[in-house]
Fold this sequence. Notes:
The protein is an alpha+beta fold. It is built from 6 helices and 12 strands. Helix 1 crosses helix 2 (35-50).
Amino acid sequence: VERTYSPIGTTDSEAAFCAILNALRAKFTDSMPSLPILYEELKVLCQEIVDYEPKTTIFNFLLTCGPHLLWVYSWPGARPGSKVWNGLHYTIRNRKNDDTTTRLSCSGDDPNYAVAIGTAAYKKTNGASESINGTRDSSSINDSENQVCLVATKPLTSDEEWIELERGELLVMDAGAPKVSAVDLFRAELNGKGLSAKVLQPPHLEEDMRRYQFEPTFFAGGGI
C-alpha cells in the first residue's frame, strides 16, 4: 500500500491510524464507501493490526468519520506487570430522565480528584425546557437530543449500567446509541450521516444495498 499518510511521532497509535488511512485510501479510489462497507473494512483492518501480536496488543480507539458518527473499537488487555485493565466501556443516558449533573471520581486512589459531567442541556420550568442560553420549548427537543452515550476506559459511576466492549468489537455510535447492523447503518446513511468528499464520488448506495440483498422497498424514496 502506498504511504500517503505518515506518522509525525513514534507512537504505535500514530502508526496504526496512518496504516488505517492508507489502507482505506488504497481501497476506495473512485467513490466513498457507504457506512456498512466502511464498517466491514474497518473491522478487517483492525483485525490485521491485532494479528501481529494478538496476545500482547492493546488497541482501543474512538474515531470520528464526519460530524455525526463516532466509531468505537476495543481490543483490551493489561500491560506486562500491570494490574490495570485497558478496555472501553459505555453507558447510555437519556436527558428526559436525567436532569442532574453527576460528580464522579476518575481515580479511586485520589478522593480529591473528581470531575463533573452533565447530560442535561436544559432545565425544566413549568413543563417547558430552558437552555442555559435562553428558553426552548420541550416539544422541540427530539429523541436524538435527549440521548447521549458516554465512553470511557472504565466505569465512571456506580449507579449506571456500563457495558464493556468485547474483544474485537466495533460499534458505531449514532444519536447516542450503538449501531452495528447493515440496516441501521444504511438508515443512518439515508439520513445524511454518511461520508462526503469533494474529490471522490458519493457511495453507490443502491449497489451496496443489493450486495446485502435488501429488497428495493427498503431504499425506495431514499433519493438514490
